[in-house]
Amino acid sequence: MGRTLGPSPTCFISSSILSSLLFASAAPRIRNRIAHSISMALAAAATTFRPRLVVTAKADNTDTRRRHWKAGEFPFPTSSDTPRRSARTTERPPDKPRDEDGDSSRRTGRRHWKAGEFPGTPEDSRRPQRSPIKNVKKRLDARAEAKAWACTVTEALADRIDAKNWQEALQVFQMLKEQPFYHPKEGTFMKLLLLLGRSGQPSRARYLFDEMLQQGCQPTPELYTALIAAYCRNGLLDDAFCLLADMKASPVCQPDVYTYSTIIKACVDASRFDIVDAMYKDMADRSIAPNTVTQNIVLSGYGRAGRLDDMEKVLSAMLDSTTSKPDVWTMNIILSLFGNRGQIESMEKWYEKFRGYGIEPETRTLNILIGAYGKKRMYDKMSAVMEYMRKLAFPWTTATFNNVIEAFADAGDAKNMEHTFNQMRAEGMKPDTKTFCCLINGFGNAGLFHKVVGMVKLAERLGVPMDTTFHNAVLMACVKAEDLMEMERVFMRMKQIQCVPDATTYSILVGAYRKEGMTDKIYVLQQENPTLVPTDLVHV
C-alpha cells in the first residue's frame, strides 16, 4: 500500500472541467486571459504536487537517503488516520553494503564490539589485545608447578628457619646435602647456627660448625661469632672463651667488636663484671674501640646491679668518645633505671640532659615515663605525657595502655583499670600477655575473683599466649581469694600444657601452703623440684 503525499487528483479533474466551461462561454480576449491564468495555476499546482511513495522490496531508496530528519519525525504532513509505526517502518534506512572482502560481520548495525573499541577504527591502528588475566594466572601457576625439586627443598629450608623450627630445618638441610648440585654456603650455615643458638641447642650448633669445616667451607669471623652467641645464650662461657682463643690464633678470623659485644653481654647477664673489665682491656690491646651497643650493654648491666658509680663512669666515657656517642637507647636505659627505682626527680633531670644533648625521645621513652609516674600514682603527670604523645603524633601502643592498666591494678582501682582496657580495645590495640597479667592482678587486688575467671576465658578466646607469667598471676589471684583447690587445679593445668614453672610459681605455692600449715604439700613440691624449693622451707 502507498501513501498520498500531495493534493488529491480530484482537485485537478475539477479544474479541467472548470476551464473547459470557461473556454466555451467566454470571448476570445477573455479566453486568452483565462487560459493564461489557468496555465499559471496548473504550473503552481504541479510544483506542489508530489507522487505517492510506495515501499516495495525492489524500490530505490535514493530519496530516502537524501532526506535527514530526527527519529520519529516525518517530513510531510500525514493524515490522522495513518498509524505512526508504519511511518517509522517506511523510513528505516537500508543496510550498508558488504565490504570489499565480503565480510558481513563488519556491518555497523549487526556488529558487537567491546567497550573502548570503535567500529570504524582501521585494522592497522588497533592495539593488539592482551591475554586474559586468567590465562596469565594459569601460566604462572604452571610455571610454579614446573619448578625443580631442588628449588623446593631450598625454599622449604628457608621456611623452616623463618618459622624457628630447628628440628625440621635440620631434616630439610640433610635432604639438601644429598642433592648432586649441593655446594656449602656460608649464609646457610650462618642462619642455621643462629637458629640453633636461639633454640637452646649449642651442642648441635657445634656439630654443624665442625661439619661445615669438613665440607671445605672456610670459617669467617661472623661464623665464629654466631657459634659464640649460641654458647653465650645458654650460659656456656667457658666454651665461648675457648672459641675466642681459637679466633685469636687464626690469622683470617680475628675477633671484632661484635664478637666482644656478644661475650660482654653474656658476662653482664651473669653479673661477671670482672670479666667485663678484662674484655675491655683486651679490646684496648687490639685497638678495638667499643661502639654504642657495647656501652649500652654494660650500662644496663651496671644499672641492674645497682652499681651507679660505674654506670656514671661509662656514661661519661660515652659523652667524651667519638665512636660510642649516646643514643636514644642510652636515654631509655637511664630513664628506666631511675623510673624503676622510683627516683622521679633524677629521671626527669636526666631526661632534660639527654634532650640538651640533642637526643629526641621516642614512643618507648615516653612509655617509660608513663610507667614511672603510674607506679608513684602521679596520675596528673601520667595524663600530661599521654596528651603530649597525642600532640606530637606519637601513637599509643599496647605498652602505653599496659602501663596505665598496671598503675590502676597496683592501686586496686578496678573501675578505671577496666575502663582503660575497654578504651584499648576500642582503639584497635591488641592486648598481649602482660595486659591480662595486669588485669588479673588488679581484679585479684580488688577482690573480684569472678572477673579474674572472665579474663582467663577472654585471653583463651583471643588466643593470647598463656606462659608462666600468666599462670603465676592466676595462682596469685587464687591465693588472694583463699581458694587452694582452684590454685592446685591451675598448677596441674600448667603441667598438662607443658608450661614450665619457675621460682615465682613455687614461691606462691609454698607461701599458700605455709599459711594453711600444709607442710606435707610443701614436701611434695620439694621432692618434685629440689632446686627451686629449698629444704629449709619444708621444715619451717
TrEMBL record:
Ranges for region Disordered: 64-138
Keyword Ligase: no
UniProt domain Pentatricopeptide repeat-containing protein-mitochondrial: residue ranges: 383-491
Stretches with biased composition (Basic and acidic residues): 82-106
Domain of life: Eukaryota
Annotated Gene3D superfamilies: Tetratricopeptide repeat domain
PPR repeats: 185-219, 220-254, 256-290, 291-325, 327-361, 397-431, 467-501
GO-annotated molecular function: mRNA binding
Span of the signal peptide: 1-26
Pfam families, sorted: PPR, PPR_2, PPR_3, TPR_24
Keywords tagged on the record: Repeat, Signal, Transit peptide
Keyword S-adenosyl-L-methionine in annotation: no
Family in the record: Belongs to the PPR family. P subfamily.
Protein's recorded name: Pentatricopeptide repeat-containing protein-mitochondrial domain-containing protein
Native organism: Oryza glumipatula
